[in-house]
Amino acid sequence: MHWKRIVLFSLLFFILAVSLFYYVHSNVQRPLRKDTVPAGAYVVPWMKPSPSIRELNTNPAYAAVDAPPWSIDMIMATALRLNITFRITTRNETRVIPSTVYLGHDAEFLYVGGKFQGMYRNPASNPDDDPTLTLPNCFCIYFDVDNDEKLSFPESGSALAVCLGKDAGWHVGKSWKYEDTLWRKNPSLKRYGWDFVADYYQPNPQPALSVGDDAVEYDNSTGTLIMLFSKYLSRPEISETDRLQMRTGECWVMGFILELHYATWYGVLQDFVDGWPRNTYPWLSDDSSWWPKLVIDLTNPPPTIPGQAPGQLE
User: Fold this and answer.
1) How confident is the model over 78-136, as pLDDT tens digits?
2) Long-range contacts made by residues 199-207, C-beta under 8 angstroms, separation at least 24?
3) Residue 117 is part of which domain span?
4) What is the pTM of this model?
5) Residue 7 placed within a domain
6) How far apart are CA 54 and CA 51, in angstroms?
7) Is residue 24 assigned to a domain?
8) CATH number for the domain including 218?
C-alpha cells in the first residue's frame, strides 16, 4: 500500500506542476520586443488614411456609382512609398506595370496600398466571362515575422484579390476579397509554402481575419488598379495562424516581400507573377535572408497621428 500512496502522490504532484506551468506561461507576458533597426531598413511612418478605408466604401461622396474617383496619393499622403516596376509575363506578352506601394501604421493597423498602372484585366479570363467568374488580379505582402531569415510556421501574409468584369470602371463591374496567408506544409503540394488560412481551418470556419477594411478602384481606360487594406498589428484570437502580434511599446523589424500576379485556372505554381525585390515565387524556398527589412515602431506614438481628421469614420 505504501508504494501506491507514493505513486498517487507523485501523479498528483505532476498534475499540479503542469497546471502551474501553464498558468504561469499564459499569464506572465514575455518581455517587450525592441529590435535594433538596421541601416537601409524601410521604416513605416505613423499615419491613418484620410478619408478612412471604411468611409471610401460607405460615404456617397466616394462610393456612389456617379462619384468621382478617389486618389490614393492623397488618402495615403504621408505613407512610405515604394516605386516599383512589375513585369508580368503572360502567355502572349510581358505587361510592364509602373507601380507605387504605400505603407503606414497607427497603434492598431498596418495600412497597405498599391497603385498599379496598366495592369488591366486578367489575361487568363475570357472577356465574355460572367464577372463573378472572372479570374482575379492579386496583390500580396508576406512577412518573416521573427526576422530570423528562415520561414517557419505560421509567419504572416495578406492577399487582396480583385475580379474585374468586362464593364469594370471606377465604381462598377468589380468584386474583391481579402485572404490571410500563412507559411505551412501544404497537404496537396506536400511541401512548405504560402497557403490560404481558410484552407488550413477546413472543414471548420476560420475564427477571424487579420484585415480591418479594404477598398479598390479601377480605371478601365488606363488599366490602373488601386488596392488598399488595413491589417491588424495584433489580433490574439488568430495567433495560431498569424504570428504578427505586436504590443504597445514594441519595435519590430521584419523581413518582407511583395507580389503582384494574375491567377490562372491551373493553380498557384502556374500563375502569371512578378515579385519585389525579386521575380520569384516566394513559396519555393524558406530562405528569407535576402528579403528587405520593414520596421514598425510602436514605442513613441506622436501626439497627433497624421491623416485622421476629427470626427472622421474609423
Assistant:
1) 999 999 999 999 988 999 999 999 999 999 999 999 999 999 999 998 767 676 678 99
2) 200/241, 201/241, 206/180, 207/237, 207/238
3) 45-297
4) 0.88
5) no
6) 8
7) no
8) 2.60.40
